[in-house]
């Protein structure tokens, strides 16, 4: 398996997506607390968070399969940086850079989400390097 392929299969950059909701901060996950969901591996910082995710994955899984929200709004799959995130109406959105987060996602939240939702229907099954 190539590094690119492995990175695609480890969702949210290996960060605990439940922690964004419960701790209000990104927390690095561990292979010790791994869960498989939608063909990807998700890491969690604790067994409790892994169990919460397993019980309600749709509640905790980030938008756009854990790819950058701003990127999805432009029809691209861009790897995220865990410190650039927001929860809007209970949905976790991750971004790739300070610029993408502040200048696009936060500045035009509704528009970015709307474009991302529309584009995601087209790009979700396409590998990032083919977009």
Automatic annotation (TrEMBL):
Record domain YHS: where: 18-63
InterPro entries to which the protein is assigned, alphabetical: YHS_dom
Name this protein carries in UniProt: YHS domain-containing protein
Source organism of the structure: Roseovarius faecimaris
